[in-house]
Design the sequence.
C-alpha cells in the first residue's frame, strides 16, 4: 500500500470512512484510536487494523495520513498534534467553531509541511459533481441566482410536549456550533463551489413560537450575496408534514435543478418546453474525497479541493448566518471571510 492511514474516532462516520478507504486501491487503514478499548477493537476488526487507546501510539506509528472523526471541539488540537507528527490530515467538518481556531489549524499544517483537507463531502456527491461540471462547461451561462434548501418534514409539537434533549454533543452549540455549522454547512460549501467568493449575508431565524397551543418549527433563512453579483437563498429547518429539500441554480442562459441525491439533474433551456434529464455521476463520494487529498500529497495539485482555506470560508459563512440573526443586519465579507471577531462563536442558537 502507498498510504497507511490512522483512524481517530469510532463514531458512525468512521464506518463510512472504513468502506471508502477499502474502495481506494492505494490506501489502507492500519490503526484505529479510541479511548474505549471495546469500541476501538470493534472498529479495528471492521477495518482489518490494530486498535490503540493512546493517541501517541497512533501518531508515532507507521502511517502517513490520519482521518479525524471526532466532535468538533477536538478538531484543532488533534489536527495540530497530527501535523506536528508529520501526518497528512483529513478532518471531518466543520473545521472548527471559530475563525481563530481554523487559522491555527492551517498555520500548524503549513509549518509542518503537511496537507490538510476538511470533510465537506457533498461537493463530491455524483449529483452535485454533475451540476458543477455542467456549470463549468457553461451550459447555463454564468450562474446569477439560486436556492438551496435543506429542510425536512416534522411532526406537530404542542406547547405541552416534553422536549428533552438526548444529551448528544451535537445538541449543544458550545460543542457543535449549532445545526448551521454541523449540518447545513454542507449546502453552504456547495453554494460557494458554484457561485464563488461571498460578499455578504443577511439572515434571520424563526421558530419555537406559540400558535394556538402549537410550537412553530425552527427555520433559518439567509440571502447570500457574492462578489460576482449573484444572489442565493439558503434555508434550513423543518415544516410540519412537508419535506422540501431542493436545489436550483439559475444562469444567464439556462438553469439546473435537483431534489434527490443520486437522481438525474434537470437542465432547463429557454428554447425547450421540458427540461432535459442529465444522469448523475455514480461514485463513492468519500473515496473521491480521499483521492482529492492523495492528489495533493503526490504533488499533482498544490492543495486539496477541500483545503483548510475552503474549510475556513465555510465556517465563516455559517458564523455570518448566526451573527446576522443576532444583530438583525447584513454581515459583510472581505476576501471571502466575514467581518467578525476572530474568536466569535455561536452559543446563542441551539438550531
Sequence:
Amino acid at each position: 500500500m502507498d498510504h497507511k492511514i490512522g483512524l481517530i474516532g469510532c463514531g458512525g462516520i468512521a464506518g463510512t470512512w472504513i468502506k471508502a478507504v477499502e474502495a481506494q486501491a492505494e490506501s489502507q487503514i492500519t490503526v484505529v484510536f479510541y479511548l474505549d478499548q471495546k469500541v476501538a477493537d470493534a472498529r479495528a476488526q471492521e477495518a482489518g487494523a490494530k486498535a490503540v487507546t493512546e493517541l501517541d501510539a497512533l501518531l508515532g506509528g507507521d502511517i502517513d495520513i490520519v482521518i479525524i472523526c471526532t466532535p468538533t471541539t477536538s478538531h484543532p488540537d488533534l489536527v495540530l498534534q497530527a501535523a506536528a507528527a508529520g501526518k497528512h490530515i483529513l478532518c471531518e467538518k466543520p473545521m472548527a467553531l471559530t475563525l481563530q481556531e481554523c487559522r491555527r489549524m492551517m498555520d500548524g499544517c503549513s509549518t509542518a509541511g503537511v496537507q490538510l483537507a476538511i470533510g465537506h463531502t457533498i461537493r463530491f456527491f455524483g449529483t452535485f459533481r454533475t451540476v458543477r461540471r455542467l456549470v463549468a462547461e457553461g451550459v447555463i451561462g454564468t450562474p446569477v441566482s439560486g436556492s438551496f434548501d435543506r429542510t425536512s418534514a416534522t411532526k406537530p409539537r404542542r406547547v405541552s410536549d416534553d422536549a428533552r434533549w438526548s444529551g448528544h454533543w451535537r445538541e449543544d452549540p458550545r460543542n457543535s456550533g449549532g445545526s448551521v455549522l454541523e449540518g447545513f454547512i454542507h449546502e453552504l460549501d456547495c453554494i460557494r463551489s458554484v457561485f464563488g467568493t461571498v460578499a455578504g449575508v443577511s439572515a434571520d431565524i424563526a421558530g419555537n413560537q406559540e400558535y394556538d397551543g402549537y410550537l412553530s418549527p425552527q427555520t433559518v433563512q439567509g440571502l447570500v450575496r457574492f462578489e460576482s453579483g449573484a444572489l442565493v437563498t439558503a434555508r434550513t429547518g423543518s415544516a410540519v408534514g412537508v419535506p422540501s429539500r431542493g436545489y436550483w441554480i439559475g444562469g444567464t442562459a439556462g438553469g439546473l435543478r435537483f431534489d434527490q441525491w443520486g437522481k438525474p439533474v434537470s437542465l432547463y433551456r429557454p428554447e425547450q418546453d421540458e427540461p432535459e434529464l442529465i444522469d448523475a455521476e455514480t461514485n463513492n463520494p468519500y473515496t473521491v474525497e480521499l483521492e482529492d487529498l492523495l492528489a495533493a500529497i503526490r504533488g499533482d495539485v498544490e492543495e486539496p479541493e477541500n483545503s483548510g482555506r475552503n474549510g475556513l470560508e465555510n465556517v465563516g459563512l455559517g458564523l455570518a448566518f448566526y451573527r446576522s440573526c443576532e444583530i438583525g443586519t447584513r454581515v459583510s465579507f472581505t476576501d471571502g471571510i466575514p467581518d467578525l471577531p476572530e474568536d466569535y462563536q455561536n452559543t446563542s442558537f441551539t438550531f
